[in-house]
Amino acid sequence: MRNKKTIVILTDNSSRNTSAAIKERFRGQKDTLVIIIAESELDSYLKNIAINYFFKEETKLRNLYDKYTELMQERKMDKLVPQKVSYNRKSPVHRRVHNVFLRYSPDIVIAMTPKMLTASLAVKEKLRSKAKVIVVLDEFCLNKQLVNKNTDYYFVDNHDIKEELLSLSIDEDKIMVSNIPVKKAFSKSLSREEALKVFDFEDRPTVMLVASQYGDEKFKKLINALAHAKLDINVLVACGYSRRLLAYVREKTDFLGLNEGIDMNAGYCCSDIVIARPTATVLAEALYKKKLIFSIYPSGEMERRTHDYLGLDLIAKMDNENMVIDKIKEYLENKDNFEAMRRLIDNAVEGEPAQKIASKLYEMMT
């Protein structure tokens, strides 16, 4: 855009928090414009119309479609894409990304998905653009579909991913270990007492269940097990967008259930234990807040890999609801049993990941 440095982030729904975390770090900088564009907006109109017509949101059919799509993507995770890309004028995605380049004249394009990376590299070559195409990997394990030697820069969470990229011929000076960025709201520090008051909780051990963005129904089993265990704890349930899960919490238990309006920063600040699926963005938030994490119900191959990878030292892997209850009881009886894990958690995230990324992006543009 005229007289402004421009960053375009091409993302999907799973990475929208990461994209927003990067964008907000440029808020107030008048010489920089950050634009987030959803991958679905760049897909074929006919495809989007067909999906929305035949697979309506929050239906069983849509859930099956999403799981099928996820499965197809997971099967490719260990396969490298062709390193030479070329523009395909028949592809709606390529044409629309081409329009994005022409309209915004970006200095940087951040591709959050394999589809967006391939299209961005192809358009960059076609236009002989000077824009830098960058990947921010917001997972704890590598998806090889995002590996391409023509990518200008990688931001990754950990040194193991960096080593994998090096083994795949990505230059070391094109990789920064930055940790997964989290939103600025989580930088706000609240004392435990202040955070407990946000939810009107008594001063006693507190457990927060994060039931994923759309409120994973499997958490009903855990909620039921916790209710029957009758532990002397506060229980906060982040139900995501699920009204059904929220209704279940409120009708079946005396726990506090909240939907998308929940103050997640206060939730982390008052919690002694966070129980969640091994979804990267949730774990990144909990690790940033230096919280003890119990991981359960991994969904999909990437979550299973994260469950196993972080389960070696940074999170406690839970196999079932009974194991969760036993571990909470162990924590209540003797917190020192978790001291070794807590020391590792305290050093898991260095500084402000989103600010590190934003500073490097700004440096690249100037």
Describe this structure in words.
- The protein has 366 residues and is an alpha/beta fold.
- The protein is 43% helix and 14% strand.
- It contains 15 helices and twelve strands.
- It has a six-stranded parallel β-sheet with strand order 2-1-3-4-5-6, sandwiched between helices.
- Strand 7, helix 8 and strand 8 form a beta-alpha-beta unit.
- Helix 1 packs across helix 15.
- The longest helix is centred in the N-terminal third of the chain and has 15 residues.
- It is globular and about 65 Å long.
- The mean pLDDT is 92.
Write a concise keyword list for the protein shown above.
366 residues; alpha/beta; 15 helices; 43% helix; globular
Give a short synopsis of this structure.
This protein has 15 helices and 12 strands. The protein is an alpha/beta fold and 366 residues long.
Read across the widest sheet, the strand sequence of neighbours is 2-1-3-4-5-6
**What is the subunit arrangement here?**
single chain
- Outline, from the CA principal axes? globular
Unreliable residue runs:
none
Q: What percent of residues are in strands? A: 5-15%
Number of helices: 15
Which percent range fits the helix content?
40-55%
Distance between the termini: 15 Å
Content-based structural category:
alpha/beta
H/E element sequence: EHEHHHEHEEHEHEHEHEHEHEHEHHH
How do the strands and helices of this protein lay out in sequence?
Blueprint: E1 5-11, H1 16-24, E2 32-38, H2 45-54, H3 60-74, H4 92-104, E3 108-111, H5 114-127, E4 132-136, E5 153-156, H6 159-167, E6 175-177, H7 192-198, E7 206-210, H8 219-229, E8 234-238, H9 243-252, E9 256-258, H10 264-270, E10 273-276, H11 280-288, E11 292-295, H12 301-310, E12 316-317, H13 321-333, H14 339-346, H15 353-365
Parallel strand pairs: 1-2, 1-3, 3-4, 4-5, 5-6, 7-8, 7-10, 8-9, 10-11, 11-12
Helix pairs in contact: 1-15, 4-5, 7-10, 8-9, 8-13
